[in-house]
């Protein structure tokens, strides 16, 4: 059994921009532009970066919820980019997604039993009695009660709804869960409860997570490794301890300098980035970060830095560091 459950190679997702009366293609949004990473079995890989940098598009296109423009995704030894739609549907029971806004993703007219049962019905699993039993068990697993099965989404708090979102993702016993900002809409006190639940479930069920967040502090404790995205590309990836203690990429350093440190003696210099994130429809040449980088050189303006391992699995795309 291979160590890597998920291998993402050169993933791209471009959206055409159309214009004029004939709807001609006049450009392209490079939402995800050549992203490669792996996730080991049982591991949590955190994926962070500012809003609009391509995190959700990465998560959805690797699950083929949206079709990638290019690239190869291997899941559990199978090249899933080569699967037919039908084969992909069957494969998807092993790879589930949890969304940021559980309310938007739960049908308000269905009670919780119907919502949780649905994946089993779609995949033709179990008798009606077995499905109802599984729904009740799963509610307990995520810290709710079996009597909640007859209630409707609006009768739950935000934190409870996210527990329902997690329960629905777990109904088919998946191996991989892509969690797309699962706690971003929740109060800070509720966030840690949901994060703790996800960690407990991972241990008990042997789950593998791709955990997406825009905030570095959220993924810190749950992630074994963390990847940082900027404008559709990964700029740095390392194990969490290394990334937080010794960030290398100027963008990661800037992001981290904005995170309040729990240790006042470790006060870092606050790095303020100049300007806004450029448009992915018209990304800068060379290193896409060069327009905002305090260390920019001539090379950065013209040559795109490769994403490479500078030692011990610390990946970085920056001309300041050569492998
Ligand atoms: P994130 O999750 O990091 O906030 P997204 O993956 O949602 O970022 O979006 C990345 C970029 O792709 C953004 O510039 C966004 O506007 C663009 N984008 C996302 N979905 C579409 C779409 N369906 N059509 C056109 N552009 C899109
Ligand atoms: Mg997103």
Helix content: 25-40%
CATH topology tier name of the domain at 4-81 and 226-316: Rossmann fold
CATH class of the domain at 4-81 and 226-316 equals: Alpha Beta
- In terms of DSSP E residues, the strand content is 15-25%
Helix/strand-derived category reads alpha/beta
Query: Overall mean pLDDT score?
Result: 93
**Distinct bound molecules:** adenosine-5'-diphosphate, magnesium ion
Amino- and carboxy-terminal Cα gap: 30 Å
Strand order across the largest sheet:
6-7-8-3-9-10-12-11
* Total beta strand runs: 12
Low-confidence segments: none
- As a whole number of angstroms, the C-alpha radius of gyration is 21 Å
Overall outline: globular
* CATH architecture name of the domain at 4-81 and 226-316: 3-Layer(aba) Sandwich
Total of DSSP H or I helical runs spanning 4+ residues = 11
Q: CATH homologous superfamily name of the domain at 4-81 and 226-316?
A: P-loop containing nucleotide triphosphate hydrolases
Major pleated sheet: 8 strands, mixed
Task: Tell me briefly what this model is.
Helix content is 31%, strand content 24%. By secondary structure, it is an alpha/beta fold.
């Amino acid at each position: 059994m291979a160590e890597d459950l998920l291998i993402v190679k050169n993933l791209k997702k471009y959206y055409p921009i159309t214009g004029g009366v004939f709807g001609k293609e006049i450009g392209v949004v490079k939402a995800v532009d050549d992203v490669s990473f792996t996730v080991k079995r049982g591991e949590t890989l955190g994926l962070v970066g500012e809003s609009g940098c391509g995190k959700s598009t990465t998560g959805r296109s690797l699950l083929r919820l949206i079709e990638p423009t290019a690239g190869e995704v291997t899941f559990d030894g199978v090249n899933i980019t080569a699967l037919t739609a039908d084969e992909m549907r069957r494969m998807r029971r092993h790879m589930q997604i949890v969304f940021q806004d559980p309310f938007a993703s739960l049908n308000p007219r269905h009670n919780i039993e119907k919502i949780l049962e649905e994946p089993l019905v779609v995949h033709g699993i179990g008798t009606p009695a077995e499905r109802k039993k599984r729904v009740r068990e799963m509610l307990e697993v995520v810290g709710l009660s079996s009597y909640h099965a007859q209630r409707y989404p609006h009768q739950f708090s935000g934190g409870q709804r996210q527990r329902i979102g997690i329960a629905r993702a777990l109904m088919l016993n998946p191996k991989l869960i892509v969690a797309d900002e699962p706690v971003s809409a929740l109060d800070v006190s509720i966030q840690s409860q949901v994060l703790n639940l996800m960690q407990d479930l991972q241990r008990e069920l042997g789950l593998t997570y791709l955990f997406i967040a825009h905030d570095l502090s959220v993924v810190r404790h749950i992630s074994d490794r963390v990847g940082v995205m900027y404008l559709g590309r990964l700029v740095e990836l390392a194990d969490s301890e290394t990334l937080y203690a010794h960030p290398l990429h100027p963008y990661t350093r800037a992001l981290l300098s904005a995170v309040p440190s729990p240790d006042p003696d470790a006060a870092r210099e606050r790095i303020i980035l100049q300007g806004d994130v450029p448009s992915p429809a018209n990304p800068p040449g060379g290193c896409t970060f060069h327009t905002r980088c305090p260390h920019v050189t001539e090379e950065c303006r013209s040559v795109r830095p490769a994403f490479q391992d500078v030692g011990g699995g610390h990946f970085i795309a920056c001309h300041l560091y050569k492998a």
